[in-house]
Design a protein that fits this description.
Number of domains: 1
Radius of gyration: 16 Å
Distance between the termini: 48 Å
Largest sheet: 4 strands, mixed
Order of helices and strands: EEEEEHEEEHH
Number of strands: 8
Helix content: 10-25%
Structural class: alpha/beta
Strand content: 15-25%
Strand order of the largest sheet: 2-3-6-8
Length: 139
Amino acid sequence: MFKKLINPFEKSQPKIKKPLIAIPRFPCPFYGFFDAFGITYMDQRGNHCPLIGHICKMEDNLSGPDWRKCLFNCPENKKTIDQIIDRHSIAPDEFWPEGQSSWKGIPFKSWMDYVMDPETPRPVTSKMSETTAEAENNH
């Protein structure tokens, strides 16, 4: 089923505290989303970064994408990032209301708080698994 947004120019829904399903996410609020309509980010669960318009440059990083280490997360981009946090909404699959084919999304700030929370489930990358396995074998 194709998911679509209700009028993307309307304000998003208030903060949603808990996801409907658990989807492991890297600690980056942009990773795996694409920019829809210039004010909403849609989930694609891929490796796309809407800030640079293509594959995330941290894909080859041993621990995977991490907003705290991203080159785009710098003082020169503060104004742009603040505008996104204040004005954009985001439609992550784990918060998408069950049975609805359209949805306004949640405020970007709410998503950022969720995805950067250490309690949010994280994916285990093959590189992380290899490193963990090596460390366990060396002990």
